[in-house]
Every structure is written in C-alpha cells, then in structure tokens.
Amino acid sequence: MTISITVEKDGFYEVNGAQQEPSVSLHVTPAASKLRRMLKETNELIVCPGVYDGLSARIAMSVGFKGLYMTGAGTTASRLGMADLGLAQLHDMKTNAEMIANLDPYGPPLIADMDTGYGGPLMVSKAIQQYILAGVAGFHIEDQIQNKRCGHLAGKKVVTMDEYLTRLRAAKLTKDRLHSDIVLIARTDALQQHGYDECIRRLKAARDIGADVGLLEGFTSKEQARQAVQDLAPWPLLLNMVENGATPLITTKEAEDMGFRIMIFSFATITPAYQGIMDTLRNLKNQGVVGTPAGLGPKTIFEVCGLGDAIKVDTESGGDGFVEGV
C-alpha cells in the first residue's frame, strides 16, 4: 500500500488526499533516563546537594544544580525529628522522595537514599518499585545491618557479603522486570568493621551482578578515595562528602580530578538550616525580634516555591485569583 503525504504552505498536510491538522507530541525524558545519559554521555562530575524537604529542593533548583540528593539523615531529622539511626522507614523515605522528584518534571534528577532496603528481598523489591513510581532517578542501597546508623557515626556493623548481594540482586531483578532506567548505586559501609580491602571486594561483586555505580562510605583519607577510583575503574563511583564527618574535606574539583562521577553533599542544606534557625530563635528569645534581613519577606520564599508558575496557570486559564496582584 502506498501512502502519499503532501505538506501545504499553511502548515496543514494531506494523507492520501485527506487534510490533516498537524500535531506535536512532547516527550518528557524520565529523570532516571536523564541521569543515566549524564553518566554515559558526559565526563563531568554530577554534583548533587543534599536536600531534605520541598524548600531546600526548590532553592537548590533555583541555583542551577544538575542533580539533587535526598538525604536519609535530613529526611529523618525533618520528618521525624529523630537522629539517623535507621528509624525512617520506606513510607517516610518514599513519600519525601516523591514530593521532591515531582516539584519540576523538567528539573534535575533526584538520587535518593534507600538505606538497607527496609527488609529482605521482598521488601527491597517493593521499595524499588515504589521509588520508580515516585520518579526517583537513582538510589543507593547499603550493607549495614537493619539497625543501621548514619554513615559518618562510629560503631557501624554490616551484614555478610551474601546478604548484601541478595539485596542488590533483588534490586537489579526488580528494576529490570519493570524496564526502568533507575540507577542502582551499591554502597558499602564495611570500612570501619572490615577495612578497605573488604570494601573493594564487596563493590567488585556488586559491579559484577549489575550495579551501575559504587559508593564506599566514610573514606578516611584523600589517598584512600583516589585509590578506590583506580581499583574499580572504569566503573563509576559516587563520593559522599560530609563536611566535619569521617572523610577529610574534598572539593568538587579534587573529586573530579580523582575520577569520581557523582558527588553528593548530604548535609549541604540541613546543617546551615540548623545554624540559621538556632541563631534566629536565640535572637528572638534574647532580643524580642527575629532579625530578618531587609527585603527578605514572605514573597521571596513564595517566589522560590513556584509563585510565578501558579499565577501563570491561573491567569492563562481565565482565573481571577491574582488580578489584584499578590
């Protein structure tokens, strides 16, 4: 069968003599696919500030970062008011990640903490499926025991290699079954308990079963970080930089020179938020005023949180909610 298509000057076209109105289909690249392309098609370091709620995520996006990281420590502190001791569960983490990932469908891809996977293989599989449906671009899953703690605290304990790989296999099988591009990041916290060589052994095994990226948590020196990149090359590695944590300060330039592909700053927003809130409330307690800088009013916060977009939607839809301004 022959199909004849004729394009006319007015932009309309004919298919076998029948006039058709042109249509345009817009395709939004899933965040997971976007992150995967960034890893495969560029050599740049993907810098992801740690965000813990909608406001911190909105601010990070307004500054122009190409990726975001939802911190488990920040999620636990902000949503539960608790220390990062494995208290946040799948519902807490997935709900927070979903909100952040969907603030802007065209925005930077979100990598999210998935702790230990919240249980055995069936729970790991459930967690992966929920993260995929939430729009998360990548996640890391670790080898700590279920009663885990922040990666930059002392006293961490890890499960056996077999149990660790069971978690990773469950994650890999699930994402493959769902045909998802979500980036699987294998994290090991074995450095404190078993030393560097065991970390490399675990990460090589994770790489061999199909993890996309590796993460050795809590480097104790820059030399150790550089060595890990060399020992696992060309597999991409993620560096978690927690200032004043277990790892000495490594800048983004140093990390890029070492060969890391992703760099997350887990406490990038929650630590200054703590400091700013503490200073402000002490000022209110002692001086009777908050002391907000001139020009920083409610509208500034709302503008960062999408006020302009809200006005545009209402106005272009024929609404009158903002005819008198804001």
TrEMBL record:
InterPro entries reported for this sequence: ICL/PEPM, Isocitrate_lyase_ph_CS, Pyrv/PenolPyrv_kinase-like_dom, Pyrv_kinase-like_dom_sf
GO molecular function: kinase activity; methylisocitrate lyase activity
Keywords assigned by UniProt, alphabetized: Kinase, Pyruvate, Transferase
Keyword Transferase: yes
Transmembrane segment boundaries: none
Catalytic activity: (2S,3R)-3-hydroxybutane-1,2,3-tricarboxylate = pyruvate + succinate
Entries under Pfam families matching the protein: PEP_mutase (PF13714)
Family: Belongs to the isocitrate lyase/PEP mutase superfamily.
Annotated protein name in UniProt: Pyruvate/Phosphoenolpyruvate kinase
Organism: Penicillium cinerascens
Lineage, uppermost ranks: Eukaryota, Fungi, Dikarya, Ascomycota, Pezizomycotina
